[in-house]
Design goal:
Blueprint lengths: L7 H4 L7 H13 L2 H10 L15 H21 L8 H18 L9 H11 L3 H4 L5 H16 L9
């Protein structure tokens, strides 16, 4: 999640990126290549080294945001599948699990969520969000869902190593 980056919220609604943004993100992309991440962020650190996150947004609020983004992603995947598709039952089970998790979060009061997260959740559910959606492969959506879920829930739920 990029919630801690200054200026990210200011540009979320823009359709076109400024030339400076494009150049900087291209440079970032180059620096974030897998080989460089592996070398500089894994090989040069002790085994299982972790960095503690600055507590600008609570983990509970990030989990709340993750739930809304991920459940919407699963719903979008489900919308394109015919009932006889081999993935239909799998996505049906995912929807059932997200519905159950949604019941857990229904007890969450809006005042418990930081304003920045509440605004992003509203944006995820807004009708205008359709025009800003990017085409993404279904597997990539679920890969990201799992990766972020492990980061947000692994320690608090005491999952151990996966």
């Amino acid at each position: 999640l990029v919630l801690g980056c200054p200026g990210v919220l200011a540009v979320l609604g823009l359709e076109a990126a400024a030339p400076g943004e494009c150049e900087l993100t291209r440079l970032l992309q180059d620096k974030l290549q897998y080989e460089m991440r592996l070398q500089y962020m894994k090989h040069y650190f002790p085994i299982d080294y972790t960095v503690h996150r600055n507590g600008t947004v609570s983990e509970a609020a990030l989990r709340y945001l993750w739930f809304h983004v991920s459940s919407q992603a699963v719903l979008r995947i489900r919308e394109v599948l015919p009932e006889k598709h081999p993935s239909w039952k799998y996505t049906q089970e995912l929807c059932r699990l997200f519905d159950a998790l949604g019941k857990e979060y229904s007890q969450y009061r809006q005042t418990d969520v930081e304003a920045v997260v509440a605004d992003l959740v509203k944006l995820v559910h807004s009708k205008g969000a359709e025009s800003r959606r990017k085409a993404v492969r279904p597997k990539a959506l679920l890969d990201n869902c799992l990766k972020v879920m492990r980061m947000l829930y692994g320690a608090p739920c005491e999952w151990g190593r996966w």
